[in-house]
């Protein structure tokens, strides 16, 4: 049976009434993770329990169906399975199966997890819908453990010089993942107020974060973590140095906009090579790219002999599912 994959402010499996990370409120939607650009007050949303725990009130759906990872559940006459996406706490890919055909929607995805953890699983499918945030060749990140070691050395050097190291990272997800990555080095942290609710939500979900306090006057001996934009609290620190922790470290014109002294290429997304590897591991014979550099990445895939297409607004693409 032919079904349509439609892009209209979100991806729709139209024949099944299911939307994937739509940007507007829908009757039935899958929410891949808790970042604000993926969550809306849908009438009914499918997600993991940690994702719900991280959602602030205005972003919570009216009703939720909590789906454990790696446990197939029926939705109408189809079957779906959520698979860890490696992006942040609660993030999930969606494997959709119907009539013998399989589709994988990655959502935001990180393949190389670091810390001696295995790579994120990529199920074998016929159709892959992959996010392409860093879908240009110059976005190639070093080994995550190597970058974390460099961040730790920079923080230690600043602390030894009685200068406060400030790591600029998104308040939800990246801030907590950076803390966890640096935990092995024994650092203590001070969190800017926007990071605090999400640190508490991580801990309420059972994640043990390193020692932290809310950013105040006494930060001696602590690494400060703050969002990149709106640094009033950081400017009151006195002697400090700031580093942006982001995949955008590969683009100096971007990170200098945030007043950072330097940047570390530590990302919770796939870089260009990882995206190519995701496509390879999926074995998909049809790939759709979304978000970021979707058109550029689709062109690169086509040059490699992959049937690839960037989804655009109002576009309808049909395949057997």
Short description:
With 321 residues, this protein is α/β, with parallel strands linked by helices.
Folded structure, characterized:
By secondary structure, the protein is α/β, with parallel strands linked by helices. The strands form 3 sheets. It has a 7-stranded mixed beta sheet with strand order 6-5-4-3-2-1-20. It has 8 helices and 20 strands. The model has no long low-confidence stretch (mean pLDDT 90). Helices cover 22% and strands 27% of the residues.
Query: What is the number of strand segments?
Result: 20
Mean pLDDT, as a whole number? 90
User: What does the largest sheet look like?
Assistant: 7 strands, mixed
Number of helices: 8
Rg over CA atoms: 20 Å
Helix content: 10-25%
Query: Which structural class do you get from the secondary structure elements?
Result: alpha/beta
Report the order of strands and helices: EEEEEHEEEEEEHEHEHEEHEHEHEHEE
- Tell me, what's the shape? globular
> Strands of the largest sheet, in order across it?
6-5-4-3-2-1-20
Percentage beta strand: 25-35%
End-to-end C-alpha gap? 6 Å
Pick out the low-confidence regions.
Answer: none
